[in-house]
Amino acid sequence: MQRAPLAVVAVLAATLIAGCDDDTTTITSSTPPSGAAPAPAAVDYAAWQAGTSEPIADKLYPQHGTAALDVLHYDLKLEWQPPKKLLTGTATLRIRPTADAAQLKLDFKPYTLDKVTVDGAVTEATVQKEKLVVPAAVTKDKPVTLVVAYHGKPTTTPIPSHRSDVEPLGLTITKEGGLWTMQEPWGAYTWYPANDQPSDKALYDIAVTVPAGWSGIAAGSLVTQQGNTFRYRSTDPMASYLQTLAVGKYKKVSAKGARGIPLTYWYRPGKDEKFLPSLKKSPAFISFLEKRFGPYPFPTGGAVMVDSESAMETQQMITMGGKGKKFDRAYFEEDVLHEYAHQWFGDSVTPSTWTDLWLNEGWATYAQFLYSQSVEKYSDKELEDYLRRADADLRKRLGPPGKPRAANFAESNVYLCPAAMLKELNDALGDEKFFALGRAWVQSNKNTQQTRASFTAFVNKQTGRDYTKLINSWLDSKSTPRPA
């Protein structure tokens, strides 16, 4: 998520969010259950083993996601028809049940269901209160294949936040008939059935068919473009909030980053050109981060411009908003670096629950401050003084970062306060040991979900010192902790 402390002058707003409709519409599959189900074809689920997770219930937002299912792989075939504002999709989910159950239940906005099958057998399904309910009994650790064909007009979901850049999240239709989405802490379910929570990471294949002259963009690597169909693949597991979809009359710029990493910048002619010079600095931003935190963790990278006031760390393809604010190049470039920093902190290493959002935003915000400091040349004392002033104000208004409020998702306390904690840890360890800690954290925990407990244990083991009190006080105290 975006966090743009442009200079050491003021507490700035923050970046993504989301909320939940109370939609009680029930939609039933237009295809009735068949009498005799065909014998399911043998499926080698080992092909998606890298998508294995250990989902847990999210206490902050228990209405989204489930711990009963581990989605290994999403295969999404999508078609967008702008004149009709019609999204047609077929979602094939490879699922490992984590418990015996009488039904499958996933997050999903009400679309018309055209056909639903489980292991090849047609079944009845309903969408009730934004849950896709499939009455098919499943057995723990015995994978199944769920296929959902659907169509309809996308709608967004509200956001539980008071940020200045809040917008309805999920799949958004532009006035030109294009699409874009940001979906943190949820919103993926507005365009495909999903286990929409951070603790279930999965592999993805996405094919997007669009009108001639348009482009379809998703997270992951662009594998092929055949006619008007764009195909993307993610071979590193991804939480649903890190997926993205953008459709419009885009042009792309190809580049190379550090160590030859392919980079792609998607922009709309006549609308986004002013952002291109900053996007083209991506190799330098990634090199800045690699020097501190180790190799960029994915095979490709890049950015897509959309009509948002915010920005988002969507995996391998960051989403940058170009709407609503007077263009400030330095501010925008700090945002770009912030979202790239999340590729290490949040995308590769993901928090298990939204209570630990600070684990993403603290690191990305501190990396952003380090970059800002390298450009603007302010002193460590100026940074320290600013962070402490900001921390004191934010704790008073929003509470400590380790105990976020459900109604205040991704507000500034989970950015600035943990960044101040990391600054103190940096001061205690010195640069060499601190950046060694950051590199080791990311590289040894690649493609996993982590918690405050695992982070604290890792810090103590890596440094050979007990920093439990420092970490807990910065995450839980109602007032700014005293310097160590």
Automatic annotation (TrEMBL):
Catalytic activity, reaction form: Release of an N-terminal amino acid, Xaa-|-Yaa- from a peptide, amide or arylamide. Xaa is preferably Ala, but may be most amino acids including Pro (slow action). When a terminal hydrophobic residue is followed by a prolyl residue, the two may be released as an intact Xaa-Pro dipeptide
Keywords: Hydrolase, Metal-binding, Metalloprotease, Protease, Signal, Zinc
PROSITE patterns in the cross-refs: PROKAR_LIPOPROTEIN
All copies of domain Aminopeptidase N-like N-terminal, residue ranges: 72-242
Residue ranges occupied by any Peptidase M1 membrane alanine aminopeptidase domain in the UniProt entry: 281-474
Enzyme Commission number(s) from the entry: 3.4.11.2
Enzyme class: hydrolase
Signal sequence annotation: 1-20
The protein's required cofactors: Zn(2+)
Top-rank lineage group of the source organism: Bacteria
Protein family according to the UniProt entry: Belongs to the peptidase M1 family.
Protein name: Aminopeptidase N
Biological source species: Paractinoplanes aksuensis
Lineage: Bacteria, Bacillati, Actinomycetota, Actinomycetes, Micromonosporales
